[in-house]
Amino acid sequence: MVITEDLIDFLKSVPPFQFLDEQLLNDIARSVSMEFYPKGTTVLHQDGPPSDALRIIKKGAVKVFFAPEKGEEVLIDYRSEGESFGLLSLVGGDKSRATVVAVEDTICYLIGRGGVLKLVDAHPSFTEFFFKSFLNKYIDKTYQEMHNKSLLFGGGDKPLFTTPVGEIGTKGVLSASQEISIREGAEVMSQNRMSSLVLVDKEGVPTGIVTDRDLRDKVVSKGRPVTDAISSIMSVSLIKTEARDYCFEALLKMIRYNIHHLLVVDEGKLKGIVTNHDLMMMQGTSPISLVRDIESQHTVEGLAPAAKKTNEIIGLLLKEGARASNITRIITEINDRLLKKILELAEKEFGKPPVRYCWIIFGSEGRKEQTFRTDQDNAIIYEDPLTDSDDARSRTYFTVFSAFVRDSLLKLGVPRCPANYMASNPEWCQPVKQWKKYFSTWVYTPTPDAVMKSLIFFDFRPLYGDLSLAESLRDSLHALLEGQMIFLGYMANMIIKNTPPVGFFKSFIVEKSGEHKNELNMKVKGIAPIVDMARLFALEKGVRETSTIERLSTLKEKHTIVKEFADELEHAFEFMMLLRIQHQFEQMESGKEPNNFINPNSLSNLEKKMMKQSFNLITRLQDIIIERYKPLIW
Amino acid sequence: MLSFITGRSKSDEKESRLQETQYVVIDTELTGLNGRRDSIVSIGAVRMKGGRIDIGESFYKMMNPETSLTAESVVIHEIMPSDVVMKPNIDAVLGDFLDYCGTDVLVGFCVSVDMEFLNRETKRLFGAPLGNQVIDIYPLFEWLLKKGIFSGEKAALLSSRYQLYDIARCFDIEVNGAHNAIIDAFITAQIFQRFIPLLSKAGMKSAADLVKLTKNFKGGDHNRISSNISNF
Fold first, then answer.
1. Which end of chain A is more exposed for a tag (fewer CB within 10 A), N or C?
2. What residues of chain A lie within 8 A of the CB of B194, using their CB?
3. C-beta separation of B144 from B198 below 8 A
4. What is the mean pLDDT of residues A89-118?
């Protein structure tokens, strides 16, 4: 029929439908309908009725997210033209797993349940495509909690799509002959401390299952004699999976029947049981096991493999659709551990330091916003010496100490700071009073160099040693800044000069020539403006947090501008960071040196749109800052 | 079949909500506009349940008209005499069409023209006009326009003459290819699909409200001249 022609043309351009033959596409087309959702429409409600169709976006875009009763919503994904949603609850038939809202006027094609199940059953490539793309983003999220826990146990990197269930579904399963009595069954269960018992026939073929609940509901509460055959209370609807099936098929069955356990059978015989927890645990490389690995090392050399693994973890987190802030948080955690370990080793090597000291880090490390490549940005604050000879002794000690740390970091692949902002530089290994002097000089005499240094050093964060030294330095910094509108004005000037790269006709302004022709520097143009604004506002209000996201969330209560724009700023920041991390990850995967340059043409329409929105937001805030600092803007 | 053509009581009035009503969106192509001389060349129809367009099961039939195709009409809908000479005449097609419509609410653009021709044929063949309730997209559009539902730029796009494709374009609905009863019915359905959320936001609760709006519509004739181009 004429009006399905467009539909078929469309499907031919969309994976996985493009892999299906024409005949089948025509078949499917017969059961397709079309809906329109004005911007803002909630298409599926989390925990609401299951989706009645697989929806493929013809035009527009949707946002998929969890909205927990408490806490912030968890964004799973944005989907746009050619992408689809609603599959899991359609197949599962129980309830919607997430909320889906149209973020623009959206038109979807709908394939009903019957059509989808037919495809799922008949076409492995179809199934695999969907479950691969959905699982990575979706199920892992659903079970994030569980997943995070499972990371504790580490486990090898066994992909869901290449591992047969038999390899993991070997968890002790308790079985007994179906001929025994209820009492005997209950005894076996309590002796083995198991809550379920699988009954098998003479050939060892499973015929049913009895759980604690059956004993409670069918025996105790009904007063049934415990001498009855156990088969009279067993539930016979056993869902089985073949040991040779791939794990994703097992997961599919669980979703479909809304169950958490599957019996694994091999040639008809019971082999074990697999739970969805087991499947989640397969997801490999674990930040937590990595951290344990770091803790157990005694040499710098021993830390090297762990340091290398960080990139793998980022890859894994990206695949799971983690937020940028969560990714950087985990990277920060790992890098902090590595550095703390090195400092421990240094103290062991050179003995305890002669005075109290604090190792501080700043720049992106200080803000907990590290991605793949970070330089060494660190310094030492030590207790004010009473005498010159005390000071000399401290200097001698910290010279070798900081050199050791610097060289250890080099061994782990963390390059020197090109500007030499490192503790091994005597300028940045100073007693408290000298640090205070630095800060007051920068604030009172804001030369370009001083402002530059302030941007970097004012994001300092204590890492190791006597943290109170850094805290008191932070106190004096905030006291110093109070009412220092001139200094803050300098910062404001610097912020407003970095205008977003959007042209008059709303096209992106890219590099006109050179190595990065037609590309855009995400770090300078996208991320830095938000970081700088959050810093300015934090310094205005004496907020102690150093990470951009934490600054914004604390400022929500304290700062009128942030109050109004916090959510948008946070969103824009997460988006830009994620783009950058993804970009760098892809570069590293293909063996390139990661950089910050992105070609806007390589972005999807939705990404372009979000990027423009982010830039618009930055422009708006810059205008507000100009207004606020009017007398100080030149 | 006859039962739903003839005996429909007032109590049958569709009171169900806009989103739950079953609609059939129709369009016909004609040899011309003279209600006595001209006749139907093709019928296209698409079912909707609320805002969901069932694009898999549409209805499209061409037929051999009793009156000859005029050069004028051929230019518009590109149906050539040779295309229809082998087609059945309307007597063989109408029954299928009525089955397809069932008791659903019929929806069309300036639908009075379509209804006039369809009713002429059902009266001739079955002794009664169609009993289905009818909604016309055109008065809905004018009503929404009057209510100020469209943003300024969209309304400005539309001068005083509103044709099917003009309205479609201002809702970003793809319009391409020749006039054809099924394509036009599909375009009409998509416009209706866009209207439903707007109408319910503006206080229209049920299909009956829309039927009433259609019946009270006075500008039919003036509009018929400007818009009937889509019918032939």
1. C
2. 36
3. yes
4. 83
Q: Give the structural domain span for B219.
A: 2-7+16-227
Q: What is the mean pLDDT of residues A48-53?
A: 87
DSSP secondary structure letters along A426-466: GGGEEEHHHHHHHHHHHHHS--HHHHHHHHHHTT-EEEEE-
- Give domain status of residue B196, yes or no: yes
Q: What integer pLDDT is reported at residue B161 of this predicted model?
A: 60
Asked whether residue B232 is assigned to any structural domain, the reply reads no
CA–CA dist A122, A120 (Å, integer):
6
Question: Are the beta carbons of A3 and B54 separated by less than 8 Å?
Answer: no
Give bridge partners of residue B49 from the DSSP assignment: B22, B52
Region A232-254 average pLDDT:
75
Q: With respect to residue B42, please indicate whether it lies within any of the assigned structural domains.
A: yes
Q: In what order do the strands lie in the sheet with A61-66?
A: A42-44, A99-102, A61-66, A74-80
Q: Is B166 exposed, middle or buried (0-12, 13-18, 19+ CB in 10 A)?
A: middle
Q: Is the ipTM of this complex over 0.95?
A: no
> B225 vs chain A: nearest CA distance in angstroms?
28
pLDDT of residue B60: 93
Whether residue B80 lies inside any domain: the answer is yes
Pick from A6, A29, A36: which is nearest to B56 by CB?
A29
* Total number of domains in chain B: 1
Give the CB-side neighbour count of residue B222, counting CA atoms within 13 A. 7
Residues of chain B with pLDDT under 50: 1-15, 220-229, 232
Angle at alpha carbon of residue A43, lines to A39 and A44, rounded to 5° = 145
Residues 143-182 of B with CB under 8 A from A: 172, 174, 180, 182
What whole-number distance in Å separates Cα of residue A79 and Cα of residue B196? 25
Q: Do A4 and B56 touch (CB under 8 A)?
A: yes
Contact A148, A250 (CB under 8 A): no
Peptide bond into A16 cis (omega under 30): yes
CB contact under 8 A, A33 and B186: no
Q: What is the pLDDT of residues B51-89, one digit of tens each?
A: 999 998 899 998 887 776 677 777 666 777 777 777 788
